[in-house]
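Lab notebook, design round three. We kept the backbone fixed and only want residue identities now. Task for the bench partner: fill in a sequence for the structure below.
Input structure tokens:
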């Protein structure tokens, strides 16, 4: 029986062309590994640093990754996409064109007799009310419609600039997010009896035993190139080399 894989926070499009080319090669080689050894793949948010779907246009530059994901589905591998804080504007391209369902809210699922709960991790900071308000604004159907009226040549640079400013702002502050994420994981494991809680968002790989369960943070593919693998018995955090 083949394994189940989990990864997050690739942020395609974030860095300069050389770094993006190298990152794309790493991700493609990882996806080839999943194609050979996996039966399911969970993308736990922020595959792209920016993604916005118009009715007939999607962002350029990601066709190799998108094609590879489509190939996995064609080979019978189940791929699921849990939306992260850079994925507010995922619409119907992934489910309709690639057969990849998109989950905009956290959810639980049973895999081979084990209970898993997935959450990208955004919004769990103990004192980050501002982000929670911003999240509602960005997910507003009215605001998405208004944004879609702008030409892509304007929206992409605007979004990338906003992403970099946001990263500079949050990178210098301590929102207590790690504690908030751990508290959330403890609640799921202790009260709701989940075996595993899996998140991303923090860009730092982490494995924390909590009573009879384990909380994993998947890290990222910018600095760590980490992912998790479930063989039907245990989940192991690994580094792609």
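Proposed sequence:
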């Amino acid at each position: 029986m083949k394994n189940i894989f989990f990864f997050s926070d690739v942020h395609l499009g974030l860095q300069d062309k050389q770094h993006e080319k190298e990152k794309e090669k790493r991700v493609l080689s990882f996806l080839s590994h999943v194609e050979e050894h996996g039966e399911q793949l969970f993308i736990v948010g922020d595959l792209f640093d920016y993604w916005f779907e118009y009715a007939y246009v999607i962002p350029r530059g990601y066709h190799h990754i998108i094609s590879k994901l489509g190939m996995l589905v064609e080979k019978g591998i189940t791929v699921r996409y849990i939306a992260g804080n850079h994925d507010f504007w995922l619409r119907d391209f992934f489910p309709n064109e690639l057969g990849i369902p998109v989950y905009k809210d956290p959810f639980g699922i049973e895999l081979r007799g084990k209970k898993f709960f997935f959450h990208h991790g955004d919004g769990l900071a103990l004192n980050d009310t501002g982000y929670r308000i911003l999240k509602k604004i960005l997910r507003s159907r009215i605001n998405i419609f208004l944004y879609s009226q702008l030409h892509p040549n304007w929206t992409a640079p605007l979004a990338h600039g906003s992403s970099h400013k946001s990263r500079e702002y949050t990178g210098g502050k301590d929102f207590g997010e790690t504690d908030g994420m751990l508290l959330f994981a403890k609640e799921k494991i202790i009260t709701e009896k989940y075996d595993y809680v899996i998140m991303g968002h923090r860009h730092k790989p982490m494995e924390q035993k909590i009573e009879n369960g384990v909380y994993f943070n998947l890290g990222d593919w910018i600095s760590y190139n980490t992912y998790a693998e479930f063989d039907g018995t245990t989940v192991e955090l690994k580094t792609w080399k």
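Keep this in mind before ordering anything: The CA atoms of residues 138 and 220 lie 23 Å apart.
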